[in-house]
Amino acid sequence: MNRARDAAQRIESLREEINYHNRQYYVFDDPKISDAAYDRLLRELTQLESAYPQLVTPDSPTQRVGDKPLEGFDEVVHRLPMLSLDNAFDEAEMGEFERRIRDRLKLDGDEAIRYLAEPKLDGLAVNLRYEQGKLVQAATRGDGSRGEDVTSNVRTIKAIPLSLQGDDWPGILEVRGEVFMPHAGFEALNRRARKTGEKGFVNPRNAAAGSLRQLDPRLTAKRPLSFYAYGLGEVVPAPIAEQQSASIRRLQQWGLPISPLHDVVTGVDGCIDYFQRIVQQRDELAYDIDGVVFKVDELELQQQLGFVSRAPRWAIAYKFPAQEETTQVEAIEFQVGRTGAITPVARLAPVFVGGVTVSNATLHNMDEVMRKDVRPGDRVIVRRAGDVIPEVVSVVAEKRQAGARRVSLPTACPVCGSDIIKPEGEAVARCSGGLYCPAQRKQALKHFASRKAMDIEGLGDKLVDQLVEQELVDTPADLFDLTLAQLSALERMAEKSAQNLLQALEKSRSTTLERFLFALGIREVGEATAQSLANQFTSLDAIEEADEESLQETPDVGPIVAAHIHTFFRQPHNREVIGQLLAAGIHWPAVEREPVEDRPLSGKTVVITGTLSMPRDEIKQILQGLGAKVTGSVSKKTDYLLAGDAAGSKLAKAEKLDIAILDEAALQDLLRQNQ
Ligand code: 9MJ
């Protein structure tokens, strides 16, 4: 008897603890324990509940694993319609939105309107019904009046509380929000799908929709879905607050996650300012958003404004330019990169996507062309997100014309005719022509001249193309033999520009060892590796002569990279070009660094995120000066995350992995201590 009582107590406290950690993770974005420790708690609870099945309750955290499969979804009639949002696509349309509101409310000139602002998630809208604090029903939006009952599936989403926190919630509370799939989960899901030969999902939105409309909740339980609340349906007794902002904050107190990026802004200027801020952060967010939503904050004013057809007059979605569009593939061609990698590229009927006109999209490699089965003439979905290269997402299969033929990998390089080699098990095919291939030569020269390499200002892509095509330049060393007469004779090259270029070449002669190493374009030797090599060996001679074993003593240089470096320096041609470059006067100061171990961040890997007071490149140099290796993404190997303002997914990941977070003040302290 006593034992049962102890079990009941322990079960209760485990549930509280698990729910607390769920809230810390999903609602406050501030996890307090590791995934492993969380799993241990859940396991203990599961074991106790199976020993005492009479103590299982529907809102226990163990009850999220998924019920039995359904035959189909029941229909749910929404007690209050689920509205959609009007859109604005530019500042003028935002201005009109505010004008309409002011006119309708008969506001005079100086009364400012306050708006709740939040990112617009690209997921699936749901209505969650809590009765007496317990989740009793979850429904999709459907047509706004009727949706589908997806309660069993929604119960598996850990971000959604099965019972509300506290005791001051209304007896009936309908919460509206968006179910979405964060990028990391989406990528993992697609990786798994590919491994088992399944198709995977086109984008996180489709993955979220597919997961929620899955008839077997046990499968939904395995899908990494999340949720943010942004509104209310039926509430009895109402109201719970006077402002939209206060309502969602109350939802947060009751354990529902809301967007941490929400804010209250004033007037259309405040809206535009907020929009710009979110645009800046967009690429760093852990999930897709397709715009920003503004809602008149005073609920009293919302009442007065009401709604037209299916959209409230008091809200608007200021949308980003579409990131996905459909267009036609006119041809599939093969490009040759710096290291000879052959990349299939889709030539497209021009289409406006992600804010620019796109007429080429990468297909990455032949495996990808086969997997997506893209053929000339197909209609395809093209995606351009942020600064990323546009890519073909998928083919619109229904629109394929009869007779559309697959392309195959050419056997000879389209530029130089050398054999194309695709090693067994590798996705990438390469032209075997090396620097004999003009395409590789051009790319090698472009890389050599680029900002982070030799930084030869004015030596752009078009100019390199001309120089190679007119056979004025074969190797990087030839650049330094160019004369004013040769340059001035080129197309679109005034004498002044020619002089400027010669000056830029002159300036670039004085460089650093790490830039020079990076500029050589050795496979797999990026900026960070070049820096490590320079630190480790301090002279070019030492690197040239190093065997693979000693190369591998360099931080982050493994056997593959070591082999690439070693092979590079064994090629007589490469040694010759290096000799010519040095003869042309390229030089750098002696690398005299303190022994690696002595600097404050020696051996430490640092990732930078968020907005800082200096350009990233400068901060990177400072960190490297302190001995750190600076990398792009957070992993278990990261020692510190330097987080500026509005840090997003990297910060969340670092916190999850228990990685030490530095702010800019901490960096300044380190610098002061080491002056
Ligand atoms: C999204 N999708 O993030 C609304 N939404 O409000 C936000 N959608 C909405 N609000 C009223 N943040 C209807 C839809």
Give a brief rundown of this model.
With 675 residues, the chain is of the alpha+beta class. The protein folds into six domains: 2-64, Helix Hairpins, CATH 1.10.287; 94-319, D-amino Acid Aminotransferase, Chain A, domain 1 (2-Layer Sandwich), CATH 3.30.470; 323-399, OB fold (Dihydrolipoamide Acetyltransferase, E2P), CATH 2.40.50.140; 434-508, 5' to 3' exonuclease, C-terminal subdomain (DNA polymerase, domain 1); 513-583, DNA polymerase, domain 1, CATH 1.10.150.20; 596-673, Rossmann fold, CATH 3.40.50.
Description:
There is one protein chain. The chain contains 25 helices and 24 strands. The protein is α+β, with helices and mostly antiparallel strands and 675 residues long. The chain has six domains: 63 residues, Orthogonal Bundle (Helix Hairpins); 226 residues, 2-Layer Sandwich (D-amino Acid Aminotransferase, Chain A, domain 1), CATH 3.30.470.30; 77 residues, Nucleic acid-binding proteins (OB fold (Dihydrolipoamide Acetyltransferase, E2P)); 75 residues, 5' to 3' exonuclease, C-terminal subdomain (DNA polymerase, domain 1), CATH 1.10.150; 71 residues, DNA polymerase, domain 1; 78 residues, BRCT domain (Rossmann fold, 3-Layer(aba) Sandwich), CATH 3.40.50.10190. The strands form six sheets. Strands 14, 15, 16, 17, 18, 19 and 20 form a seven-stranded antiparallel β-sheet that branches. It has a five-stranded mixed β-sheet with strand order 2-13-10-3-9. Strands 5-4-7-8 form a four-stranded antiparallel β-sheet. Helix 1 runs antiparallel to helix 2, helix 3 runs antiparallel to helix 9 and helix 17 packs across helix 18. The N and C termini lie far apart (69 Å). The relative contact order is 0.07. The structure holds 5-amino-3-(furan-2-yl)-1H-1,2,4-triazole-1-carboxamide (9MJ). The site of 5-amino-3-(furan-2-yl)-1H-1,2,4-triazole-1-carboxamide has 10 residues, from strand 3 and strand 8.
